[in-house]
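Thread: Newbie trying to understand structure tokens

Hi all, I'm a second-year student working on a class project, and my supervisor (Dr. K.) asked me to get a predicted structure for one chain before our next meeting. I've only ever worked with sequences, so writing a 3D structure as a token string is new to me. If someone could post the tokens and maybe explain what I'm looking at, I'd be very grateful. Here's the chain:
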Amino acid sequence: MSISRIRNQHRLIRSTVVTAAGLGLALLATACGTEGQDPGGGDAAAGGSDSDGSADSDGGADPSQDPTQPSVELGDWVEVPAGAIVVASTPGTAVLAVGEPENSDDGTTRDVAAYDAAGEELWTYPGVIEDYYEPTTLATEAGVAVLTPDGDSSALTMLDWASGEELWSLSAEDLGGCDPWRFSALPAAEVVSMTSDGPPCAGTEPDRAGVITLDAASGEVREEHLPSAGTVQTTDALATDEVWSAEVTDEALTVQRFDPASGEVDAREIGWQVPAAEELRPENENEELRVSQVTADLAILQLWGTEGVSASALLDWTSEDDPETLLQPADDVAPCFGDGLAAPDAAVDGCLRVDLSTEDAPVQSLGFDGEERWSVPGQSGLDMEVPAQVDPIPAGERNAWVVSTGDDLLTALDAQTGEELWVAGDGEGAGFLTLGHVSEAGVLTAVVTSPDGPQGQLLRIDTSTGEEIDRQDVTAGWLSSTDSAAVLSSQNEEQPSLLTVAQGS
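---
Reply by user tm_fold:
Sure, no problem. This is what the structure looks like when written as tokens:
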């Protein structure tokens, strides 16, 4: 059985978010919305972003990485409840966040429900934590893992794919720590990796674990973990299947890369007396230090506050372990990780970017060397409202950014050269657009809304060739997707959402 990864999550950039509104541009975003629309009540319990994260049952490469050999076929669009979004899937079954969010003293929750490719509900599980920015639902070979409120922290339950029955459960006390846990979206299916960001927990020793790992089949908490005695922020380093962290104490900044599967840790401590580190030191509770993966061995550290990014530095993990030389200027990389709308990706060693400070700014493809590779005309009016995951997609043997500008509905442009690889809807004009990449089937789903009104079209496209598989008229909506499912989420209670699920081995 192959488990799919949601495409819209953990490399999520909290302040660089995009909707389809105000754009003649479409970035490949699996959780985009339209202006004024809060998809699913602002969730991610839903996952809102990539909420699961697993590879094949043998732990090998994801078969979807070869776009010419899709391992599954995509089923027809079927109706599911209004406002649903997909948060986890395996071929033949999709788990959706459904219903209205429930608010309580323990936080906001939402139900999740499993559906088959025919749109039949298989089971429902209530009360999963709704968090728009962090994943609280995870697909594994063992089952579907969900997080529910437990005091100030989280409880973890593994559910059977077919029946929804509880296979095992761990309380907040079992997991340890005092802050909510969230899943990391890494593809090691046999290991559940969970992160907990924030300040240390008082009165415990060690203060808390920044990352813990569990066996998916048994729920056993493994010895492999990443401890933290300071205020920590973590990120999924998808290019290396690691969790990277930046930890702040009174004495030093500590950056760590952690392999959840093996438990190996590479930690570098940098004293605040180092000038480059001093600029990154948070001064109050409104500032936090974040780490992001640039490439397999490069990280960018950024100090974020109420006004955005105030300082940045580049860390080369391959450099000598000298605090004076570990941090370098991040001028070249910063445009891909700054306050503008940018979608960085290690696979193409660059990003897709729109400079929000410039009226009618073009859509740019930048390398991590700071050089512009190519640009296409864009439109102003980007709405920074809905978190989005933006990825290049495989178009044949090349990686492509998908945009919608000018005279054509969709264009796949080579990420490096800007060469046009395929066009869908030649001469039909650009529109407001959201997309979902069902990579295991080699299919791009797209909903395109006319700039003049809410009417639009829903398409499925072969990512290798750009050939349209089918299209239909729809009213405006937004797409969420995993590697094996996609949902067009409706905008009102009267209109059902649409689900398509990959079927096969």
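A couple of things are worth pointing out once you decode it. The helical segments are 172-175, 275-278, 323-326. Residues 172-175 form the longest helix (4 residues). Feel free to ask follow-ups in this thread.
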